[in-house]
């Protein structure tokens, strides 16, 4: 069977992709803020890679100062808007909240963070200013969270910043990759615009091919190019119609009306990381009758976060463990009709009409990064091997401080 377009109505699709964690009302935010114990040496702040002063921003919400609260958040983390929607808080700030030790629910830090940062976004408040011009220039390769966090801080120091981005839109995976029910592209782009408004020059549609060349023109270069495309399975049948990699599938979904993204009736997702979960849940929400994770190891070995696994189960996704894909089976007309797997019980074919490959991203080999060069700085996924938005933001901010130090003191 060939891929079929989703048969859900536009209204249903809108509901399926609505925010999974809707915003707090003002009253609820006040109640929640007043539950905070405002710990000294707050473990939530320590657990946050950008070390946002969580008690301070929550206290400002409690006193009705949303602008001041957002300032505390965004001072530490230029991507505080998107992090509020997409951070894996269960393993970061909220996981560290002392209320967990009392068997109580942790403070809803991310939703409070969203409450404050949405306020400044909605009211178009400008919280930061560019610094006095220094006459120094920095090139940034990649307009993802790492590159743009670095750009914002460099502008605040007064350096001239030019960001080069291959894609037509900035934001990196925030715009093109984060699950639609967590973060929508328009929010991601509004957050980016705030940074660009500080006087960052953005050149989209430009793929940098040589860092050395940039070094002849700029005083320093920051590289935040993220990771490359999804790794290939390396099994027969991978090029059949109906086989797609997870990033391409998700990017299409995030950049087109929902009904325009094709989904099969019976979808198999190969892999069990967070991207695989995003792919399987979004396939189900697009209208697939069945959407099943196929994973060569056991349930306990899944690299995805536990709460992501729970989400996929709640969405009605299926799981086949200890099933190692051997080949994609053709329907005889060049399209996928199943995944042949080896299991402890023997070989079998899991029937499907769409296969989404989600076994991780490779490195960006196409760009040589002279990592030891004193004027070259690297951060985000291409430096840490692939982490979260908040890590990329932290590394971008940190690199900006190092670049400023080098440009100022040599
Ligand atoms: C499917 C998926 C879902 C995710 N979900 C979450 C989530 O829910 N929560 C979370 O916190 N994190 C999530 N992440 C991780 C998060 O998106 C990344 O950690 C973060 O985007 C890394 O930021 P970055 O700036 O390093 O890279 P990227 O966001 O990848 O940005 C790099 C940018 O560089 C550009 N570029 C690359 N090469 C060049 C070149 N030669 N010249 C010019 N430009 C170039 C790219 O086009 C891209 O725009 C997810 C990742 C994936 C893949
Ligand atoms: S940025 Fe993320 S980890 Fe840090 S406090 Fe905010 S929600 Fe928590």
Describe, in plain words, how this protein is organized in 3D.
With 410 residues, the chain is α/β, with parallel strands linked by helices. It folds into three domains: 19-122, Fumarate Reductase Iron-sulfur Protein, Chain B, domain 2, CATH 1.10.1060.10; 137-228 and 363-409, FAD/NAD(P)-binding domain (3-Layer(bba) Sandwich); 230-357, 3-Layer(bba) Sandwich (FAD/NAD(P)-binding domain). Helix content is 38%, strand content 16%. It has 17 helices and 15 strands. The strands form four sheets. The protein has a five-stranded parallel sheet. The radius of gyration is 22 Å and the shape is globular. The structure holds flavin-adenine dinucleotide and iron/sulfur cluster. Residues 86-87, 141-147, 164-167, 172-174, 177-179, 182, 207-208, 224-226, 250, 274-275, 278, 364, 367, 380-381, 387-390, 392 line the site of flavin-adenine dinucleotide. Flavin-adenine dinucleotide binds next to α9, β3, α10, α14 and α17.
